[in-house]
Design goal:
By secondary structure, the protein is α/β, with parallel strands linked by helices. It is 30% helix and 14% strand.
């Protein structure tokens, strides 16, 4: 049987570099991070941290607040004295007892023609009531005074009921009869209801005796 040539022996020195096995992850040292600058430690509870300088803007605002503090309050100025209310202008229209109501009607027409609104005029009679008042009262007292409250037309009332009427810019009084006591009571009432103008139609001597010699 023929002999096979011997296989060459491979010496360890002739072998290439051995592949070293990778170190186990359990045995490999863990790389440490590069230490950087340490953050400032927070202050402990109950202990204030290091005092920081106040920003200039904040110091300025505090200084302005301290400068804006009000000083001692000045005494309040006394209230102005109340100005007395001016009395309305008074006009007298001479008329007899029988013609006083007609004179009042003419005065109302002149007022409306001059631009006065009908709701600004109140007519008071001392004797017989105005025919309009008699007609409206025939529908009842409530309907009659509803016309007054509406304030959109001339309102006629006798001296006894005029106390319920409210103030209007112009009041016209017709001294068309009645007792002197009723007429005397109607004059100050009409003066108080007139805002700007009081017109009295009647006998001048009687009007002067009711209103006073200085009227």
């Amino acid at each position: 049987m023929p002999l096979l040539p011997e296989e060459p022996q491979i010496h360890e020195s002739a072998q290439g570099p051995r592949a070293t096995s990778a170190p186990s992850s359990r045995n490999a040292p863990t790389p440490r991070p590069v230490p950087g600058p340490r953050p400032a430690a927070p202050p402990r509870p109950g202990r204030p941290g290091p005092a920081r300088p106040m920003p200039p803007a904040q110091r300025t605002s505090r200084e302005s607040l301290s400068a804006a503090k009000p000083g001692p309050s000045a005494p309040a100025a006394p209230a102005p004295a109340a100005v007395p209310t001016a009395q309305p202008q008074i006009q007298l229209i001479p008329a007899s007892v029988e013609g006083a109501l007609d004179a009042a009607e003419e005065a109302v027409d002149l007022l409306l023609d001059s631009g006065r609104a009908p709701g600004e005029v109140l007519v008071i009679t001392t004797g017989d009531p105005h025919p309009w008042a008699t007609h409206e009262l025939s529908f009842g007292d409530t309907a009659y005074w509803a016309q007054h409250d509406a304030g959109d037309d001339v309102f006629y009332a006798d001296a006894g009921a005029a106390g319920r009427a409210t103030k209007r810019p112009v009041v016209v009084v017709a001294l068309n009869g009645g007792a002197d006591e009723a007429a005397a009571a109607a004059m100050p009432l009409a003066l108080g209801r007139a805002g700007a103008l009081l017109i009295v139609c009647g006998d001048p001597q009687r009007i002067n005796s009711l209103l006073g010699a200085g009227v």
